[in-house]
């Protein structure tokens, strides 16, 4: 079994010409889910990671599992208006506009080593915003990890340009 074979592809969703990569099939397969988490964790096993930040919503599932394996805390990166305490926010670019995300202002202690986790990186606007937001509150973002990379859209290069290494488990050409 490969991780790629555990990911369902849905053609023409959400619009014609898009090949949607659906990880719910991977999450529902115990062996594939375990393998993905193990592979996301592997480079940092035995090193000091203070927090894992997960982007809403599938990043919460993956990031929580990675944080557990690393004995690290978890930081939810949420859409604006979803967190109950004092927050810090940042605007980020979407394919068709701008949105905002936020974290609690006390989610990270200055200098803590943080890994960012999400299911997929495409154009990288959301991940770039999350890295900048975490750095804004004092995190040392040591890596950004994704199950899926769509390399032709350039998102991973955008994150690497910020000086943050990118770990990806599966790459799919064509979006």
Which key terms come to mind for this protein?
two-stranded antiparallel ribbon; 5 helices; 175 residues; alpha/beta
Overall pLDDT metric: 95
User: Overall 3D geometry?
Assistant: globular
Q: What is the tally of helical segments? A: 5
Strand order of the largest sheet: 5-6-4-3-7-8-9
- Main beta-sheet strand count, sense and barrel state: 7 strands, mixed
Please provide the count of β strands. Answer: 9
Low-confidence stretches at least 5 residues in length (pLDDT < 50)?
Answer: none
Gyration radius, to the nearest Å? 15 Å
Distance from first to last alpha carbon: 23 Å
Task: Please trace the helix and strand order, writing H or E for each element.
Answer: EEHHEHEEEEHEHE
| Helix fraction bin | 25-40%
The fraction of residues in strands falls at 25-35%
- Structural class computed from helices and strand pairing: alpha/beta
Q: What does the oligomeric state look like here? A: single chain
SSE arrangement:
Blueprint: E1 8-11, E2 19-22, H1 24-28, H2 30-41, E3 51-55, H3 58-70, E4 73-79, E5 87-94, E6 97-104, E7 113-121, H4 125-136, E8 140-149, H5 155-160, E9 166-171
Helix pairs in contact: 2-3
Characterise the protein shown here.
The chain is of the alpha/beta class. The chain contains 5 helices and 9 strands, in the order E-E-H-H-E-H-E-E-E-E-H-E-H-E. It has a 7-stranded mixed sheet with strand order 5-6-4-3-7-8-9, sandwiched between helices. The protein has a two-stranded antiparallel sheet with strand order 1-2. Helix 2 crosses helix 3. The mean pLDDT is 95.
């Amino acid at each position: 079994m490969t991780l790629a074979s555990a990911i369902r592809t849905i053609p023409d969703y959400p619009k014609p010409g898009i090949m949607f990569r659906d990880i719910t099939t991977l999450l529902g397969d115990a062996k594939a889910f375990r393998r993905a988490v193990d592979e996301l964790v592997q480079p940092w096993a035995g090193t000091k990671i203070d927090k894992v930040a997960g982007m809403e919503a599938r990043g919460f599932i993956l990031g929580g599992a990675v944080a557990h394996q690393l004995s690290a805390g978890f930081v939810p990166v949420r859409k604006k208006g979803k967190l109950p305490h004092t927050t810090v926010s940042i605007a980020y670019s979407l394919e068709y506009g701008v949105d905002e995300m936020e974290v609690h202002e006390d989610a990270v202690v200055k200098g803590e080593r943080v890994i960012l986790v999400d299911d997929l990186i495409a154009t990288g606007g959301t991940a770039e915003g999350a890295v900048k937001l975490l750095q804004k509150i004092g995190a040392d973002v040591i890596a950004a990890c994704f199950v899926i990379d769509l390399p032709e859209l350039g998102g991973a290069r955008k994150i690497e340009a910020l000086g943050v290494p990118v770990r990806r488990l599966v790459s799919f050409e064509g979006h």
